[in-house]
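To fix ideas, we quote verbatim a fold written out as tokens:
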Amino acid sequence: MTTSIPELIADRIDAMPAGERRAAQALVANYPMIGLKTVADFSAQAGVSSPTILRFVARLGFQNYADFQSALKEELAAQLQSPALRTQTLRRGCDSPAVESTLENIRETFRHIPERQIRDIVALLADHRAKIFLLGGRFTDPIACYMCAHMTIIRPNVFHLSGQESNWRDRLIDMGKRDTLLIFDIRRYQESLVRFAEKAHQRGTQIVLFTDQWLSPIARFARHVVAGRTAVPSAWDSSAALFVVAETVIGDLTARLEQNSAKRIREMEKLR
């Protein structure tokens, strides 16, 4: 699999001048639709000049804007693929076993996640004054539940949002500007999650999105976007890379809260 445009941005954003960085942030927040507009429209929406957009596209490795848009259209097509369509693609032949593809997904995911991003996410989650909420979609909610089970042991005020969408909305009253929502959403993106993320964002809640290489629409509301590789030679996407990212965050958070978490765990053991 070729490197996606969000992955290229993650790799190169630290080297971008301020204008190109604004273009990158605008694209991620409105992915991929803003990039399918004209250069003039893209530049106006990003608040930068047209030449800045062209320099941004060149920095990503594209010869011209047309090539950039062709890549975006290919990613959009992949984003919209259903399991049935992926099954038809598999019938045309694929030599890459699912296990090898999954391992490659994990390697590529971590190759494109800046270490500072993991540190910044851990810093958010380490704030003892904040409440942490976790939520996932039809196939990704088990990751949210798994992460919550670990985090509940090492710090207080961690909540997994389960059940129907109406139950999630009832918890919005408890969410504020100091709090963080961890949300998992991969293709085909779940409208109920997008709606909920928007409501939480409107309340000032910090959102950390764990998504795939094509980016859930929730990216427009997120403070941090972690894009994991999910495609494998199967009708179904693989969440293995996102599980490993979740475990990495859990491990780093445990180390950061070592003293407090150790005390909390000892007290838990006494209560058993």
